[in-house]
Amino acid sequence: MKSIYTLVFLVVVSAQMVSAQTIGTSGYTYDPDSLAVHVGDQVTFNSTFSTHPLREVSAADWATSTTTQLAGGFSASSGTTLTVTMTAAGTRYYLCANHAGLGMKGRIFVTTPNGIQNIASVASATFPNPASNQLHIIVGKEGDMHSTLTDMIGNAVLTRDDHVSAQGVLTLDISNVADGAYILSTISADGISHTSRVQIVH
Question: Full-prediction pTM beyond 0.70?
Answer without folding.
Answer: no
